[in-house]
Amino acid sequence: MDAFAPCVSTTLNNLGNMLRDLGERAEARQAYEEALGILLPYVKEEPRAFAERLAMVVGNAVKLLKETGEKPEEWPPLVEAVGVLAELKEGKEEGG
Question: Residue 69: helix, strand or coil by DSSP?
Fold first, then answer.
């Protein structure tokens, strides 16, 4: 795994935020999807180190989703990321 990839995902998240603020929603979605794609393998390997970062990208992507009126199923990486975070939360609540 590339040591700098998580930093790139943060940059893509920030880019997505800026693009969303400028009304460039398609480009913002692309940035968020790329950030999610980078982070998901890291969260699966090291959940404690990367789950918070993934949750941040998911939150921003959900804001865009609400603005565009798209359905979550139209964003497979977002659906996968939400599922991963839900599994992590379940594991925490079960004492894992």
Answer: coil
Domains, the chain:
5-93 (1.25.40.10)
Nearest CA to 29 among 66, 55, 2? Answer: 66
Q: Of 96, 8, 95, 25, nearest to 60 (Cα)?
A: 25
Distance between CA atoms of residues 36 and 5, nearest Å: 11
Backbone angles phi, psi at 4, to 5 degrees: -95, -10
> Quick one: average pLDDT of 50-55?
96
Inter-axis angle of helices 47-68 and 25-45, to 10 degrees?
A: 160
Phi, psi of 58 (to 5 degrees): -60, -45
Exposed/middle/buried for residue 71 (C-beta within 10 Å: 0-12, 13-18, 19+): exposed
Instruction: Work out the pLDDT band at 47, boundaries 50, 70, 90.
Output: very high
Q: Is the pLDDT of residue 93 over 90?
A: no
